[in-house]
Amino acid sequence: MDNSIKNRFPIFVARPGLVYLDSGATALKPDTAIEAVSGYYRDLSANVGRGLYRTAEETSARFETVRERAARFVGADPEEIVFTRNTTEGINLLEYSLADRVTEGDVIVVTALEHHSNFLPWKRLAKRSGTELRIVPFDIEGRLNPDSLREHIDGRTKIFAFSAVSNVLGSVNDVTALIRAAKAINPGIITVVDAAQAAGHMAVDAREWDCDFLALSGHKMYGPTGVGLLYGKTALLRTLEPYQVGGGMILDSTSETPVYMDAPQRFEAGTPDIAAVLGLEAAIGFVEEIGTDAIHSHEIALATKAAKRLTETFGDSIRILGPATRENGIISFTMDGIHPHDIAQVLGERDICIRAGEHCASPLHRELGIPASARASFSVYNTETDIDRLIEGLKGAVNLFKK
Question: Is 360 assigned a catalytic role?
Fold first, then answer.
């Protein structure tokens, strides 16, 4: 990518020395997404699905246009797209709404790769319902092996939840193969895919994957915070109880049994973050303009060069986690004698932004036998100069702690 892409991100004007390597936590926002948010407050500022005046009707129409565009972006139909706050809310919605599908003696299967967003809700549901929670381990490359699912999935398994991409290891799972293997064992199993680290970085296609549900966050793919998507197959969404009740999702509240609107509106109680939804459309446009293939290739190229230089510079004193070959822009690592939090602090003092800790993935770190890791995550606005700054910053950390 050339500097014309980086110039699309106003934060680099305000902070010209910034090296931002924390896109796995949240991506920076391009000018178009920022303008879409401010444009809503400046030009519309009306609610959706309620008013009969011109700006309200225009806002409602634009809101539904975003639903249509988001559906195309993930290979779905508009009625299969529920707007949420983020991936976490989408999966919590499922935990609540699928609770009547599991009873004592059933099985819920998750994996050791999961972000807490796709681990804790299912752990809670298992405890509440008296079901068994099984955890699928990852292989030496940090991936899930479809052939190993028979050791964990059986006829009693009701839900199988897993990530398309590990937010720590950067490993990319074969989602289609995993779902095919799970459904071959148990055709009635419900599959849930956490696509938070995949969306905006690689192609996401719910139809091709044949997943039952899929959740993602807008802020990880250049969109605003406070907006995400939950995809669900129409036949399943129509049978689920709403997660929240209130305005905007009800047809008849006076009858003994309330009558809710059809999906997806039945899952969108109250006023949504309309500005963020319009910003999400701009973010989708930004991704489509560049192309997921180009973004994916750029991130892999940078991560590959960074991993090579880290190994050449620090040798055996650095341990790079995950696949031997980079599969996206995520690199997590540990360094001998320096805690990841100390690494992040030293780099932060040089305006180099990385993440340190468990990255909301405690089971993964426990399986690796480490308390924490440092993570640099590259994105479309990063360049090889950022790798130079990262290496120099890490040299500074090593020298500091040697003393």
Answer: yes
